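BUG: 3D viewer hangs when loading the predicted structure for this chain

Environment: internal workstation, default settings.
Expected: structure renders.
Actual: progress bar stalls at 90%.

Input used:
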Amino acid sequence: MGTAYQRILLKLSGEALMGDLGYGIDPQVVQEIASEVAEVVSTGVQVAIVVGGGNIFRGVKGAARGMDRATADYIGMIATVMNAMTLQDALEQINVPTRVQTAIAMQEVAEPYIRRRAIRHLEKGRVVIFGAGSGNPFFTTDTTAALRAAEINADVIFKATKVDGIYDSDPYINPQARRYHSLNYTHVLTQDLRVMDSTAIALCKENNIPIIVFDLGVRGNIRRAVMGEKIGTIVGGLYEVT
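C-alpha cells produced before the viewer hung:
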C-alpha cells in the first residue's frame, strides 16, 4: 500500500513523552514513539518532528507564578531541546539517522536551524527534530510546528495527542462531548476549539497545510495516518464540518 504523504511534520507534546508519569520522560514511551517513527521512515516518507517541553517546564505556568514571561518561555525552549535529544537517541539506537536542529544556538549538542539544511537532511532520509521552539518567547510549539511545516513544504501536520480527535468541548469534563471527523480552519478559529493556538491555525490556513489530530496512545496510529486511513479529526480549507 502506498503512502498518502511524502513529507510530514509530526507535532509531539512534551506531555506525550512522560506517559503515565507525573513529570519528566518515560523511556518506554519514547522507545515506542521511536519505533513507530522508524516504521514510517522505512516506507520512504520524510519525517520532521516538533516536540514540546511541557513535561519538564511550561512557560505560561512559570509566568503565572510570578516569573518574567520571556524568561519562562526561554526556559521552556531549553526543555524542548532536552526532549529532542532524548528522542534522537531513541531513534538512533534503532538505526534511524536523526538530526536535531535548534532555533537557539547550542552548537555542542545540536545543529542550528537552517531551512535548506533541514530539507537536505529530509531528502537523505534522516529524521529532523526541531527544538527550542521558534526561538522567540510568546510563541507556542504549535505555532512552531505550523511555521516549520510551511518552511519545509510539509504535506501535512500530524498532531499526536492524548485524545482521539477534536471535540466540541473537553471530553474529560463533558461525557457528551461530540468528536468531529472533519473541520475547516474557520470553524476551528470561530469556535475557539483550542486544538492548536490561533496563530498556528492561521498559518496553516494561509499555507493550506492540513492538520490531522489523533491519539498517540494507540499503537500504529502514526503509520495509519501516513497511509491515509481515516483516524482522528482532519482540519483543512475545503472540509465540511462533520
